[in-house]
Each structure stands twice: as C-alpha cells, then as structure tokens.
Amino acid sequence: MAPRGNLTGFDPQKLAASSGAPPRDPWARYEAWRYTGPFSRWNRFKGAFPGLGIATVAFAGYLVYERIFLKDEHGHGDGGDHHGIAT
C-alpha cells in the first residue's frame, strides 16, 4: 500500500532544504550546557526518583525479617473454626 499524500501539499523536507539554513548552528555553543555535566541524560534520569534505591533495600530487608522472625504459628490459614463460631 502506498503512503498517503499530504492533503495540504506542505513538505517539511523541501522547506528545510530551501531555507538555506547555515551549516553550523550559531547557538549550539550556548545550548551545549544543557546536555553535559550534571544535566546529562543519565544524571537527569538518576535524579528522577530520589530515594528509590534506599526504599527498595529497606523493603527487601523488611520482607526478609518478616519471613524469618514473624512466623504465623496460630494456624489461621488452615480453614478450621478456632473461635467457636459455627458457619
């Protein structure tokens, strides 16, 4: 199936080719700081979820503590009637 044609007839590639844009962006030097150093993509991603690493370790530690030390020894999960309530 052939791609549909543009209804307006506007072609952005033709506009860019005919605009005579300079080969070098004069503002590139002023925009470079946005993507280097503390503003790099990795550093921005790393700071997106502050405390996630500490919270994950704390939650995993709690799960281990609960599994080892907080055993349910009363047998609530066997389905028996331990409280004298008839069903």
TrEMBL record:
<keyword id="KW-0813">Transport</keyword>
<keyword id="KW-0496">Mitochondrion</keyword>
<feature type="region of interest" description="Disordered">
    <location>
        <begin position="1"/>
        <end position="25"/>
    </location>
</feature>
<keyword id="KW-1133">Transmembrane helix</keyword>
<dbReference type="InterPro" id="IPR012576">
    <property type="entry name" value="NDUFB3"/>
</dbReference>
<protein>
    <recommendedName>
        <fullName>NADH dehydrogenase (Ubiquinone) 1 beta subcomplex 3</fullName>
    </recommendedName>
</protein>
<feature type="transmembrane region" description="Helical">
    <location>
        <begin position="47"/>
        <end position="65"/>
    </location>
</feature>
<keyword id="KW-0249">Electron transport</keyword>
<comment type="similarity">
    <text>Belongs to the complex I NDUFB3 subunit family.</text>
</comment>
<keyword id="KW-0472">Membrane</keyword>
<dbReference type="GO" id="GO:0005743">
    <property type="term" value="C:mitochondrial inner membrane"/>
</dbReference>
<dbReference type="Pfam" id="PF08122">
    <property type="entry name" value="NDUF_B12"/>
</dbReference>
<keyword id="KW-0679">Respiratory chain</keyword>
<dbReference type="GO" id="GO:0032981">
    <property type="term" value="P:mitochondrial respiratory chain complex I assembly"/>
</dbReference>
<dbReference type="GO" id="GO:0022900">
    <property type="term" value="P:electron transport chain"/>
</dbReference>
<keyword id="KW-0812">Transmembrane</keyword>
<comment type="function">
    <text>Accessory subunit of the mitochondrial membrane respiratory chain NADH dehydrogenase (Complex I), that is believed not to be involved in catalysis. Complex I functions in the transfer of electrons from NADH to the respiratory chain. The immediate electron acceptor for the enzyme is believed to be ubiquinone.</text>
</comment>
<keyword id="KW-0999">Mitochondrion inner membrane</keyword>
